[in-house]
Amino acid sequence: MMLAQEILLRAKKQVFTNKSAGELSKIRGEGLDFCEIRPYEFGDDIRKINFSASGKTGELQTNIFNENKQINVVICIMLSSSLHFGSQCLKSETIAQIIALLSCSSIKQHNQTQLVFFAKNKQKLFQLNNTGDVLRAIEAMLSWDLLNTKSDFQALNQHLLQSKKSLTFIVGDFYHNDDYSLMAHKNEINALVVRDKLEETPNFSLELDLVNPENNSTIQANMDKRLALKYYKKLKTQDDQLFSHFAKHGINSGKLYTDEDAFSKLSQILRQ
């Protein structure tokens, strides 16, 4: 397993030095937005004089720009016991990488950044102002005791409906088809589905004891090709419904697998 410090250093290198890192997300807020042209007044910045408009009106005109505006960025992690799984690396480790990349990107753009972990009967909030805060958030993700942990969609929904409008990233494995329409009506939502390829096509061709990590119950199943295909078709139908729901409500979404490069795949999803 990658250490928190290693994940952060890799993310900082990718976000702060990569030329395309500014396109990592749709986060906006840097720069000056044009607002209007008005007559020049004493004390105005002469570099903003609009000579074309001045020539037409016969008096000095200056461009007026909106002030920089910080964006509220909220990164929501939907914790569940199923995140403690992975054939290449754990899904929780991939999510830690996503936390590092999104947080560093948002901090780079001087946005107000918040990270919230959602689990049944337990929430943990981090205000991310610098990379030290990001490191603590990554450590919290990697050390979270995920076994016996259940997700809490209602807590997520309530938090986003009661908070200020934000650019929101919801990260989890999304094995439940919940209704995201209300939060999407208020916020700009990005849904990042983290999966492992082995869990989508579990063809082991042998009899296994399958343990439910939420309650430790066990069932025996012969995970042969026939059962794996049946499981895959059912999951695909569920995922088609999920992504159709996202598209209907204007939610940008994409799937990241644990064997993929998180930075490249995240950039690809957020440019859609």
TrEMBL record:
InterPro entries in alphabetical order: DUF58 (IPR002881)
Superkingdom, taxonomy of origin: Bacteria
Domain spans labelled DUF58: 36-237
Protein name stated in the entry: DUF58 domain-containing protein
